[in-house]
Amino acid sequence: MTAYWLVKSEPDAFSWDQQVTAGVEPWTGVRSAQAANNLRAMKKGDRAFFYHSNIGKEIVGVVEVSREAYTDPSDGTGKWVCVDMRTVGPVPKPVTLAAMKADPKLEGLLLIKQSRLSVVPVSEAHWKHISRLAGL
Predict the structure, then answer these.
(1) What are 71's strand-pairing partners?
(2) Residues 43, 60: Cα–Cα separation, whole Å
(3) Of 104, 118, 25, 100, which is closest to residue 59 (Cα–Cα)?
(4) Quick one: CA dihedral 121, 123, 128, 134, positive or negative?
(5) According to the CATH classification, is domain 4-133 in 3.10.590.10?
(6) What are the residue boundaries of the structural domains of the chain, listed by start?
(7) Average pLDDT, the chain
(8) Calpha distance 112→12 (Å, rounded)
(9) Phi and psi at residue 59, in whole multiples of 5°?
(10) How many CB atoms lie within 10 A of CB 99?
(11) pLDDT digits (tens, 9 = 90+) for 4-25
């Protein structure tokens, strides 16, 4: 069964365009225990919204887990993990944080409740609703 997620990246550090160019990219640099646990829970084939944080604050694309959690090569301690993300495609209509906050159907969305967490699960109901908003 596919699980759904949202992963955040600051576009000036790693943008959607860079993800598209790479095709498959390790999702490195996660240094929060809760977010790392979410990475560990991801399975190959799970889907995630790609969210631009800080600049834009909107969902801009969809990625898919192509390799499950392994030691993050950007971490010298060996404590942290990453997953590989494969580009699925852009969303036709980016969905802003403001729009999600204003939508009663997205009550309980962890992006809103735990706004600083960089990797969060998304319920199937929220995934379907956001996908409709995004024109998918």
Answers:
(1) 81
(2) 22
(3) 100
(4) negative
(5) yes
(6) 4-133
(7) 96
(8) 22
(9) -80, 125
(10) 15
(11) 999 999 999 999 999 999 999 9
